[in-house]
Amino acid sequence: MQLSQIPVQTPTPFYYYNLELLKKTVQAAKSESAPYGYRVHYAVKANANPVLLRLISQQGLGADCVSGNEIRQALECGFPADTIVYAGVGKSDAEIELALQHDIFCFNCESLPEIQVIDGIAARLGKKARIALRINPNVDAHTHHYITTGIEENKFGIYLYDLEHVITEVAKLKQIELIGLHFHIGSQITDMTVFRGLCIRANEIQRQMKERGLFLPHINFGGGLGIDYNEPYEKPIADFQSYFATFARFFEPEPHQQIHFELGRSIVAHCGDLISKVLYVKEGKNRKFVILDAGMNDLLRPALYQAFHKIENISSDRPEEKYDVVGPICESADCFGKDVVLNETRRGDLIAIHSCGAYGEAMASRYNLRDLPGSVFQYPK
Fold first, then answer.
1. Which residue in 65, 77, 271, 330 is the catalytic one?
2. pLDDT at residue 152 is higher than 60
3. Is 184 exposed, middle or buried (0-12, 13-18, 19+ CB in 10 A)?
4. Is the C-alpha dihedral spanning 341, 271, 334, 229 positive or negative?
5. What domains can you pick out in the chain, each with its CATH number?
6. What pLDDT shows up at residue 380?
7. Angstrom distance (rounded) from CA 57 to CA 64
8. Which residue in 44, 65, 170 sits closest to 111, CA to CA?
9. Can you say which residues are annotated as belonging to the binding site for substrate?
10. Which of 22, 166, 219, 372 could form a disulfide with 271 if both were Cys (CB 3.0 to 4.6 A apart)?
11. Where is the active site (predicted)?
12. pLDDT for 252
């Protein structure tokens, strides 16, 4: 990133979004999924900024939502209701009612009690609820334990040993239409053998369904595709080609079955950087600290699960030195990186923390009563 790209006099910290890159990324996801007839939904939880959502909806993706407010935001930003899927282990009655009133495409359901509640609310509203069963396939994503969601020790999904019972009970519910199966095993997955394992497990489940004469027209594999946080310039677009090709090679769909995906991080992560100003450079006995005006309230990922982001001093071309890059929050966890190599850094320099478009602004808070970070956009030419 060049300093000339940053608007003059913009108060820091702020998120800087490259909408040209976002558009290219969405188009890449579409072009790589199109030959297989796959349907891609954008996972709104990754970043719900309305400017980004409008661009993504205009490019024809559906929406994957995990709250009632995300459904509202998706609708307001142009996503048609019949492209919205609604997931989440703890949907409230009010959120379920909202989704039913707007006749969204599908609920991804995670337990029998949830499905029974949806059935009751749908009966009261005179609606029919289309659902997919989120299966916990007991497939390890081999990623950070906070973002692994597909093994039996997790809270997510219907466990394989309970699937037969759930299907039997769902068949008794008059306001429920079971249309599919849903999977999501984790996030920031770059090893395609993990997705191959998911396909193999999904094939086994499909065969069991077929043996009992049950055909489901929709299979949703969730998301999880990772990005290269180390090389945001060299690899600005995720490996959609290998991702979709893996499912095409190893999953065995039934005739006329629609395959869905819910991609978030791989769509928006690289298009967003957090721009912060250096408040102080502090010399310790053995370390130098760069103290920024951005903190863990602006970007939580490094404090929450030790996430790595490439950090760059975009104001300096001086010789390189090593620093610990930290924020102003009264927490020792408020650290963006240790032993970070930066060009010699001084008070007032601008620091870019790259690849923050996913789970950056979306997870920002007002901890310490700090202001929320702003947003600045580089529009396509």
1. 330
2. no
3. buried
4. negative
5. 3-12+270-378 (2.40.37.10), 19-269 (3.20.20.10)
6. 78
7. 12
8. 170
9. 265, 301, 305, 331, 359
10. 22
11. 330 (proton donor)
12. 97
Check if the beta carbon of residue 44 is closer than 8 Å to that of residue 64.
yes
Handedness of CA 308, 310, 313, 318 (dihedral sign): positive
Whether residue 13 is preceded by a cis peptide bond, meaning omega within 30 degrees of 0, is: yes
120, containing H or E segment: helix 112-125
Q: CB-based contacts of 174: which residues, under 8 Å, 6+ apart?
A: 119, 123
Annotated binding site: 224, 262-265, 301, 305, 331, 359
Task: Determine the number of helices (DSSP H) and then strands (DSSP E) in the chain.
Answer: 10, 17
What are the structure tokens assigned to 299, written together? 């970007």
DSSP state of 37: T
Q: Which residues contact 81 (CB under 8 A, 6 or more apart)?
A: 75, 102, 103, 104, 105
Q: Is 321:349 a contact under the CB 8 Å cutoff?
A: no
- pLDDT score, position 149: 43
What does the alpha-carbon distance between residue 255 and residue 229 come to, in Å, rounded to a whole number? Answer: 38
Q: How many CB atoms lie within 10 A of CB 188?
A: 21
Angle, nearest 10°, between helix axes 50-58 and 19-33?
40
Q: Which residue has the tokens 């299907």?
A: 167
Nearest of 343, 348, 353, 345 to residue 373 by alpha carbon: 353
Q: Give the residue numbers of the binding site for pyridoxal 5'-phosphate.
A: 224, 262-265, 359
Q: Which two tokens stand for residue 159?
A: 């466990």
DSSP letter assigned to residue 148: B
The mean pLDDT of 224-242, rounded to a whole number, is 96
Give catalytic status of residue 77 as yes or no: no
Whole-model pTM: value is 0.94
